Amino acid sequence: MNDFLQSIIDRDPAAKSKLSLILTYPGVKAIFFYKIANFFAIAKFDLVARIISQFSRFLTGIEIHPRAKIGKNLFIDHGMGVVIGETSEIGNNVTIYHNVTLGGIAPSINSNDQRNMKRHPTLEDNVVVGSGAQILGPIIIGKNSLIGSNSVVTKNVPEKSVMAGIPARRVGDATKGFKPYAVTDEDKE
Q: What is the model's pTM?
């Protein structure tokens, strides 16, 4: 827990103390409830897991499916409107801003054909997803990539890429370090 909170302080200049993170950051609360819900989902108490997940959504505005796979130190900044789908996989030290969707693209018909198959994205380590971005389908966002605000990503993204636009396209190289909203003018090639 201490490393998790410190990782947020390291990424957010507004973070003043670990106590303030626990008491006032919705992303911290959402991760706390996700861990409980995930425990029940793994134990096959799906209804209990979903109730906890929905309670967390009510409190935080962040919806994380209990069966999503989340690595260490996920930082959901601001958080309102974030949706993380059931088969999403998130690596270590990922930062996600508000109104981001890690969603599926399959229609809501033939649900039985879609059960137990990968439908949502995988974000590898150190990815930053800007506010409003939509990452859709069973795609992979490579390590150390930056996804610009309001981008729509529907295809795999190579490591260390800066992606922007609708549909998202590669606009730069992400070797210049962390950018809080993923893309700045200096990133454009």
A: 0.88
